[in-house]
Design a protein that fits this description.
Largest sheet: 5 strands, parallel
Strand content: 5-15%
CATH topology of the largest domain: Rossmann fold
Number of strands: 14
Low-confidence stretches: 390-396
Structural class: alpha/beta
Distance between the termini: 56 Å
Number of domains: 4
CATH architecture of the largest domain: 3-Layer(aba) Sandwich
Radius of gyration: 30 Å
CATH superfamily of the largest domain: P-loop containing nucleotide triphosphate hydrolases
CATH class of the largest domain: Alpha Beta
Helix content: 40-55%
Mean pLDDT: 85
Length: 455
């Protein structure tokens, strides 16, 4: 592994005294030398491994300056002055410095302290690099399969993993593993040490979603008894995963777009904005381009999210991956429930490969868990493996004679049953939107007809 030990020595110049010595020190220590003169309201340059505060003749200014310089515990700040005073040294260390040396008498002590600081910094960077390599090696371990369809997506994913700011849209049917891929993107990339925050946009009522995303100040609305940070703030430095992003209300789509463009958020009830450093990974199981054409999703937000698209293939297009996944789940659930590990017999293999798996990996996972629990120990009962959901009364044979509304509702339930409860797949086969399918299932077809809704 290549060492991560390219450490930079940043000299913060309050004084030009001993300037030639900094060049010699940097050369002897094998570090990069950078210099910076403090400017009011300007932050310390990023990337320093060790900070040397050159303050000869300006020692009295050091305690007031240190809070803005010694802000990171992992970056030592060594102060160099020209006044040999134990009292001054104690005052400067108490204000946040790692150590204080008075030149020219303390040259050797300064050199030794800097060498030790550089060694510690290099060791810390090497540990972080090793942890990153291990995270990358394990990030994709739960994505099982070797089919060309899956390999193509993973190869595309590998090209964007190192790029911490690329916005990514993951598409695919329900149950194909979109959240798993989003987590692999995060934990395999440079943001792995920061939070991974997930929000299912379809699971939170629209009136609450804005507060969840952006947070609120105390008194922003009736029940806002205390201030609350939004999920964007919680995810700062990491990744925000917006699942089922197509369910965002139109007014929130505009606010999300503004937040992404400005890289800042403002809590409800606040007058100031907060800068955010968050990578966005969005996911949908619907045709977002079609939603844009139908006026249900903002075109500008679509293009903002659709920078990199990763489309996960359905399980029916992944060939023998279903057998690898079945073995993976068999091992998992046999161990979890302390049951004998059953073999995949030729008959079971044929059944697994021939089934369409409309619910994709989620359906397969549930089927394997059910079969492990309900079959005789050490076996897989085909009846349990391929058991279909219990029909509701509304999903029985199509009623006839009956009203058009009753027939339509029964057809919707029948298709839902045929797709093992996968609403997205049922809507796709019926040629309607998921929201219209939901209305049909609830018997609201008359409202749709009155509103002229044919989607």
């Amino acid at each position: 592994m290549k060492s991560a030990g390219d450490v930079a020595l940043l000299v913060v110049r309050l004084s030009d005294s001993f300037a030639d010595f900094w060049v010699v020190l940097a050369r002897d220590l094998g570090v990069t030398l950078r210099e910076w003169t403090p400017v009011p309201d300007e932050p310390l340059p990023a990337g320093a491994g060790v900070v040397l505060l050159a303050a000869a003749g300006h020692e009295a200014d050091v305690p007031g300056l240190l809070p803005t310089i010694a802000s990171r515990a992992d970056v030592p700040v060594i102060v160099v002055g020209s006044t040999p005073s134990h009292r001054l040294a104690a005052q400067i260390v108490g204000a946040g410095a790692t150590d204080y040396f008075a030149l020219p008498d303390d040259r050797d002590g300064l050199r030794d302290a800097l060498a030790a600081a550089v060694r510690r910094r290099r060791a810390a960077l090497d540990r972080a690099a090793l942890a990153q390599l291990e995270a990358q090696a394990h990030a994709f371990r739960d994505i099982v399969g070797s089919s060309p369809a899956l390999r193509s997506v993973l190869e595309r994913t590998a090209r964007v993993v190192p790029h911490r700011d690329a916005t990514i849209l993951i598409t695919g049917e329900t149950g194909t593993g979109k959240e798993l891929l989003a987590r692999a993107l995060h934990y395999g990339g440079p943001r792995a040490a920061a939070p991974f925050v997930e929000l299912n946009c379809a699971a939170v009522p629209a009136p609450l979603l804005e507060s969840e995303l952006f947070g609120h100040e105390r008194g922003a609305f009736t029940d806002a008894k205390t201030a609350k940070p939004g999920l964007f703030e919680v995810a700062d430095g990491g990744t925000m995963f917006l699942d089922e992003v197509d369910h965002l209300a139109s007014e929130l789509q505009g606010k999300l777009l503004r937040a992404l463009d400005q890289k800042s958020v403002r809590r409800l009830g606040a007058t100031t904005t907060r800068i955010m450093d968050v990578r966005i990974v969005a996911a949908t199981n619907t045709d977002l381009a079609g939603a844009v054409a139908a006026g249900r999703f903002r075109e500008d937000l679509f293009y903002r999210l659709n920078v990199i698209t990763l489309e996960l293939p359905p399980l029916r297009e992944r060939g023998d991956d279903v057998l690898q996944l079945a073995e993976f789940f068999l091992e998992k659930f046999s161990a979890q429930y302390a049951l004998p590990h059953p073999d995949l017999t030729p008959e079971v293999r044929r059944t697994l490969v021939s089934h369409a798996w409309p619910g994709n990996i989620r359906e397969l996972r549930n089927a394997i868990e059910r079969a492990v629990l309900l079959s005789a120990p050490g076996t897989l009962d085909l009846g349990e493996l391929t058991a279909r959901p219990v029909r509701s009364p509304a999903s029985g044979p199509l009623p006839f004679p009956a009203s058009l509304a009753d027939i339509t509702r029964a057809a919707a339930h029948a298709m839902l049953d045929a797709t093992a409860g996968n609403r997205s797949e049922a809507a796709r086969r019926l040629g309607i939107s998921r929201s219209r399918l939901q209305r049909l299932l609830e018997g609201r077809v008359e409202d749709d007809d009155k509103n002229g809704d044919s989607n």
